Amino acid sequence: MTRLKAALAKVLGGAAASREPPSAALRDRLTSLTARLDEMHRRVEGLLRFERERAYERAGLTAIPRARLLASSIALEGTPSERLRVARVRVGDPVERQYSPWVGITRCASTAPDVGELWARLLRFEADCRDDVLRGFPCTILDVPGAEIALVDGTLRITPRMPARPTAGVVAVPRCSYDAAARKVGNFGHWMLDWAPQIVALWTLAPDATVLMPQASKWFHTATLAHMGLDPGRLVPWDGAPIACRRLLAFESDGRTGGGRPLSPLMEARRLLAPADAPTAATWNRRIYVSRRDAPKKRRWIVNEPQVEELFRSRGFDVIVMRDCPFEEQVRLFREARVVAGLNGGGLTDIVFARPGTDVVVLLSDTLIRWYAGGGRSVWAGGERGGEGHLAALGDSPRFWTHVAATFEQRCHSFVGGDEMPLADLARFLDDVLAGIEPA
Amino acid sequence: MKGREAGSVRSQLAALAAGMAALGRRMEQLAAVHRDGGGEAAQIARLERLLDLDAVVAHARDAVARADLADDPAPHLLVADLLPSDAYRALLGAIPVPVLFEGRVEHGQEMRAPPRLAPMSSIVTWMFVDEIARALSDLLVARLAEPLAAFAGARFPSLPPLGDWGAAITVSEARLVRRAPGYAGRAPGERPWELITGIVDLARPQDSPEHGSRLGSRTIPFRANTALICIGGAEAHVYAPIPAGAPSQTERYTYEFGIGPTKAARRRLAALLGGAA
C-alpha cells in the first residue's frame, strides 16, 4: 500500500515535471497505475482463495467432535490435535468438457410405452440442463504421516497416530478396498473407469506405496497397471485386519459431481493408458463391434445378438469378443478404431484407448433402460440422486457411455430398441451414423 | 487541462482510490486469517478440552426444554443460559474480526456460519456450533409444533399439513451478523423455506442490553448467552438500529440460524407448488 501511495504521488509529481503535455502524461500514468492495481487485486484474490480453501479444509479435518470428510465410509478418528497432522491432497486437474458437441445421433425405436416415456423423460431432462458442461474435480487423498487402520463394518477406520512399531511402510488404500461390492472390483469396466484411476492417483503421490486391495489381483489388474508402467506387484490383498503404517494415503473422493463420472482421475489414467505422444497407429479406419456373447446370460440384454452382429459385419465391422482378445491386442484394435459399437456395457470400456474423434455407437434395449431407471436412482427417473438441471445426474443413466465418450472427446450415438433389436430400424440408424463419418 | 479532460482524470483518480481501499481491505483480511496461524496447534488443543458436544448439547436441550413458550406478540421461546459458560466464552473468542464480515454497515454485516474465511480455530468453533444447532432442531420443532403447523399452513396453503410433508427438517442456513454504529435496518430478503429462526445474542462482557431486537411490539434486550427462537424466517424479528453517533465500540454480534426442510425436500415440495425451491 505504501508503495502504491508513493507511486500515486509520483504520478502527480512526475506528470508535472514531464515534457509531454500534462494531460497526456497524467492519463498514461493513471492507466499504467490502474493496470498495476488490477494485477495486485488478482494476486490478492488468488491468495485469499487459497487461504479460504486451506483454512476451511483443515478446520473440517480437525472438526469437533468428528472430522468432516468427503467420503462417508471413512472414519477419521483420534483427537482433533492428532487430526491436525492429516493433510487433504488434491491430485489431477479440474476437467470441463462441453457436452452437446459429443452427442451424436440419438434414436428410439422401442415400441414399449414405458421405455418410450423413460427415454423421452431423459431427453427432456438433458435438454433442460442450463449448463452444457460435464465437470470433474481433482480427486482428494488423505495423507496421514503415521496411522493405524482397519476395516470395521464396511468403514475404513483411520487413527492418525505414529505407531511405536509400524507393521508397514507407505500404504495406499483405494476406495474399492472399503466402499465397493466385490463384484464391482472384479469387473473390467469398473476397474478401468473407477478403480485403476484411483490407484494411478495414489501412486502419483507415493510411487513406493503398497496398495491394499480387497481381493487377489486378476489378470486385467496386472495387465493394465503394467501397461501404464506401474508395478502390479505392489497390489496386496487385504482382509481389513489392523495395520500400523509409517504413512497412509487413503483415497477419499474421485471428484465426481452429483452422480457424474469421475472425469479428473479418469483423464489422468488415460494419459498413461493412451498417451497423446504414443506412436500413431498406421490406420485409423477400423470398425469394431464388441459382442456380449461372453457376458452372463441375464446381462446380454438382447435376444438376437447374432443377427445384430451380422448386420454390423455387413457394414464392415470386425466383431470381437473381449474374453478371447489378449489385452495388448485390445489396446491395438481400439487405437486403430474409427468407430466402436456395442451394447451398453463393460465391453465398451476400451474406448479409453481410442483416439479423440472416434465415433461410438451404443445400443440400448428395453431391459437396459428399465434397469437404469430401476431402484429410484437418479432424478431423471424420479429418484433423488443428482441435481435437477445438472448433466451429472445422467452419469448413471442410459447416457453413461455418452458421458464417458464426451470426456475423451469422442462422439457417441445412441439407439434404443426392444430386447429383440429391430434390425431394419437399426440398419437405417447405423447407415445414418456411418454416412456422417468422414473417411479417415 | 480542459474541463472535460480534468473530469476524466478526476474520475480515474477516484476509481484508483476506491481500488486501493478495496485492496487494502483484502490485505487486512489476509492478515486477519493469518493472525493466529502460528498458534493453531495450541488453540485446537484448548478447544478440544473445552468443547464436549454431548455435554454442551445436553445443557442446551435442557435450557430449551425449560424456556417458556410465549404467545405475545407472536409465538416464541426466549432461552436463557443456552450454553455452558466456558463453551459460550469460546464462541465469543471465535467471533471473526470486523474486516472479515461482508456487507454495508447500515444494513448489517454478515458472514455465513461456519465461516469460510477466518482463522482455522474460529472455523472449528463455528462448525461445533453448527452441530449444536442441528442437535437442537428436532426439539425446537417439537416445542413450537402447534404454531409452526399453523404458520406452515398459512404460508403454503396448497401443500398438505406440515406433519404430512414427509420432509426432514433441520438447520438450513446459519450466519453471523455484526451491527455497528450507523446500522439502520436490514435489507429485505425473504427466506420462504425457513420455518423457525434462532437468534443467539453474542453479548460480550462489555456490551450493555441496549440495541437488542424487537419481535412485533416486544423489545428484547441484548443479553449474553440468550437465544430468541421464533416462527418464520429472519424477517420475523427486527434488530434494533444503532445510531451513527454511538461510540465506535458499540458493536452487536449475533449468531442466526434457520430451520427448514432439507434441500432435497424443498425440491420435492417446490415441485408440488409448481415453482423453484
Main attributes of the structure:
heterodimer, A: about 450 residues, alpha/beta, Rossmann fold, 3 domains, nine-stranded mixed β-sheet, six-stranded parallel β-sheet, 13 helices, about 40% helix, B: about 280 residues, alpha+beta, Jelly Rolls, seven-stranded antiparallel β-sheet, 7 helices, 10 strands
Backbone CA Rg of chain B: 21 Å
Could you name the ranges of chain A where pLDDT drops below 50 across 5 or more consecutive residues? none
Number of domains of chain B: 1
Determine the CATH topology of the largest domain in chain A. Answer: Rossmann fold
Mean pLDDT of chain A: 89
Please give the CATH architecture of chain B: Sandwich
Most extensive interface, chain pair and sizes: A-B, 38 and 42 residues
Structural class of chain A: alpha/beta
Q: Which stretches of chain B are poorly predicted, pLDDT < 50 over at least 5 residues?
A: none
Largest sheet of chain A: 9 strands, mixed
Describe it.
The complex is a heterodimer of chains A (440) and B (277). Chain A has helices at 2-17, 22-62, 80-83, 113-128, 182-185, 188-205, 219-227, 263-273, 305-314, 327-336, 366-373, 400-407, 423-435, and strands at 74-76, 87-91, 95-98, 103-108, 133-136, 139-144, 147-152, 155-159, 168-173, 210-213, 235-237, 243-253, 286-290, 318-320, 337-343, 359-364, 411-416. Chain A is an alpha/beta fold. Chain A folds into 3 domains: 1-37; 74-91 and 139-253, no CATH class; 99-135 and 274-435, Rossmann fold (3-Layer(aba) Sandwich), CATH 3.40.50. Chain B has one domain: Jelly Rolls (Sandwich). Helix content of chain B is 40%, strand content 18%. Chain B is built from 7 helices and 10 strands. In chain B, strand 6 (213-215) and strand 7 (218-220) form a beta hairpin. Chain B starts with a helix and ends with a helix. The A-B interface holds A 1, 4-5, 8, 22-23, 26-27, 30-31, 33-34, 37-38, 40-41, 44-45, 47-48, 51-52, 55-56, 58-60, 62-65, 68, 79-81, 84, 384, 388 and B 1-2, 5, 8-9, 12-13, 15-16, 19-20, 22-24, 26-27, 29-30, 33-34, 40-41, 44-45, 47-48, 51, 53, 114, 116-120, 123-124, 127-128, 131, 264, 267-268.
